[in-house]
Amino acid sequence: MDAELKFKFNLPEERSSLLRTIKATDCYIAFFEIANEVFRPSRKHGYSDIELQKINEYLEGDHAEVVGDVIGLLEKKFFNILEHYGINLDDLE
Questions:
Q1: What is the C-alpha to C-alpha distance for residues 89 and 34, in angstroms, rounded to an integer?
Q2: C-alpha torsion angle, residues 46, 43, 37, 54 (rounded to 10)
Q3: Which parts of the chain register pLDDT below 70?
Q4: pTM exceeds 0.70 for this model
């Protein structure tokens, strides 16, 4: 069964709503990259991004536990915000 969904926007008044609709996939991709490029490397394989490689030193140094905890808290906050708005990245793949 084919389903068709159409959106109608009154421009220019609803320009922001139109742009949010158009950019939804880009937002998903950005959130997914944040989760996988900012948070996941601290738990898995370390950071390969040149701008974040300095974090590897902290994760291997004297303050590794504290740094890991801070990154974990930021990751938890990130996902709590997404959950608050009903966004589950796994559902959107």
A1: 11
A2: -40
A3: none
A4: yes
